[in-house]
């Protein structure tokens, strides 16, 4: 039942860096993106049009869009989605020629309030003008649902609640729904139950798994979801990251670890593992640490 191919959506430059305390320059972010492209990545979330007061690390979103223009010309096959929580964010993305944006909701009220300062229902209302403007401008919209396997504020989340929010986003016109285990608490049977519930209301080929690896369960959870037909995975080079509004959350599952597992399963990604490891070493050196990825460290030790 496993897919033959998986599309990786790279989170490093956005989810990976948004929580970094030390400033990371636009130049370094762009160099990271160049290296990810060289490794064969085609979907790279590049920045977030969110409030610089809330997330200072993404304050260079306008500069990032300028810097991405020549990269886009050189690599038309690569897409750089950006986060847009409201119409103000969308306008910034549009001014920067974004071709894909993402709105982000949560399956829990507690996280919705902490992350985007409004209820789930209010967030859906805020997304409506974004969806309309995106449609007018021919821009694709991805939809995120956070806390699909647990919430740092509200605890357990019912799969039906995840399905409801996913369906709302899909009905609004999101082309794909990315399901976030924001705090990495899920385990495989729970992940499966969640995908089973969501795929009753959104086709499974429109779902992506966005798992943080806080408890070291992400690969096991991903394998469980691959068996159910999921074929899009969000991951972060070197395992960078964490969410500023999820206390203690660590990075997304490392792209190196996902690619290694998929290679072993004979599932194509189009990504060169060695070049990916190099990209992870580059950004980890800039941050003054080792990659979090187990695979990267194993490859480097050889
Ligand atoms: P708010 O305060 O409720 O909004 O913030 P507001 O409309 O009342 O505006 C307040 C101020 O923010 C105003 O500025 C606005 O201009 C400004 P002031 O008058 O005070 O100077 N503002 C903006 N500035 C830039 N870009 C914008 C924007 N909108 C308003 N788009 C808002 C609402 C959503 C903006 C705020 O709560 C925010 O920026 N939150 C940050 C959310 C965020 O980036 N979270 C991390 C990403 S999500 C994530 O990591 C989860 C994910 O990875 C999946 C998973 O793992 O689960 C996707
Ligand atoms: Mg995330």
UniProtKB/TrEMBL annotation:
<dbReference type="InterPro" id="IPR000138">
    <property type="entry name" value="HMG_CoA_lyase_AS"/>
</dbReference>
<dbReference type="InterPro" id="IPR043594">
    <property type="entry name" value="HMGL"/>
</dbReference>
<dbReference type="Pfam" id="PF00682">
    <property type="entry name" value="HMGL-like"/>
</dbReference>
<dbReference type="InterPro" id="IPR000891">
    <property type="entry name" value="PYR_CT"/>
</dbReference>
<protein>
    <recommendedName>
        <fullName>hydroxymethylglutaryl-CoA lyase</fullName>
        <ecNumber>4.1.3.4</ecNumber>
    </recommendedName>
</protein>
<keyword id="KW-0456">Lyase</keyword>
<feature type="domain" description="Pyruvate carboxyltransferase">
    <location>
        <begin position="6"/>
        <end position="277"/>
    </location>
</feature>
<keyword id="KW-0479">Metal-binding</keyword>
<dbReference type="InterPro" id="IPR013785">
    <property type="entry name" value="Aldolase_TIM"/>
</dbReference>
<comment type="pathway">
    <text>Metabolic intermediate metabolism; (S)-3-hydroxy-3-methylglutaryl-CoA degradation; acetoacetate from (S)-3-hydroxy-3-methylglutaryl-CoA: step 1/1.</text>
</comment>
<dbReference type="GO" id="GO:0016829">
    <property type="term" value="F:lyase activity"/>
</dbReference>
<comment type="similarity">
    <text>Belongs to the HMG-CoA lyase family.</text>
</comment>
């Amino acid at each position: 039942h496993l897919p033959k191919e998986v599309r990786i959506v790279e989170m490093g430059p956005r989810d990976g860096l948004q929580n970094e305390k030390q400033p990371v320059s636009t130049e370094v972010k762009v160099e990271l993106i160049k290296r990810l492209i060289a490794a064969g990545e085609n979907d790279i979330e590049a920045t977030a049009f969110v409030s610089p007061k809330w997330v200072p690390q993404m304050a260079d979103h306008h500069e990032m869009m300028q810097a991405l223009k020549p990269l886009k010309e050189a690599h038309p096959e690569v897409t750089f989605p950006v986060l847009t929580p409201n119409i103000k964010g969308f306008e910034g993305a549009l001014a920067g020629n974004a071709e894909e944006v993402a709105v982000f909701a949560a399956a829990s009220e507690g996280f919705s309030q902490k992350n985007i300062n409004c209820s789930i229902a209010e967030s859906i209302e805020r997304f409506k003008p974004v969806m309309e403007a995106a449609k007018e401008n021919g821009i694709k919209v991805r939809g995120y649902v956070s806390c699909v396997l647990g919430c740092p504020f509200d605890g357990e989340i019912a799969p039906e609640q995840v399905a409801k929010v996913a369906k709302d986003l899909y009905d609004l016109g999101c082309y794909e729904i990315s399901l976030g285990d924001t705090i990495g608490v899920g385990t495989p049977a729970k992940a499966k139950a969640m995908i089973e519930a969501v795929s009753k209301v959104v086709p499974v080929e429109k779902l992506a798994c966005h798992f943080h690896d806080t408890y070291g369960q992400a690969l096991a959870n991903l394998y469980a979801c691959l068996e159910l037909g999921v074929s899009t995975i969000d991951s972060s080079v070197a395992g960078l990251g964490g969410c500023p509004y999820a206390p203690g959350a660590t990075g997304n599952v490392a792209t190196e670890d996902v690619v290694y597992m998929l290679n072993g399963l004979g599932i194509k990604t189009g990504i060169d593992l060695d070049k990916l490891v190099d990209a992870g070493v580059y950004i980890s050196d800039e941050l003054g640490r080792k990659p979090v990825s187990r695979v990267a460290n194993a490859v480097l030790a050889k």
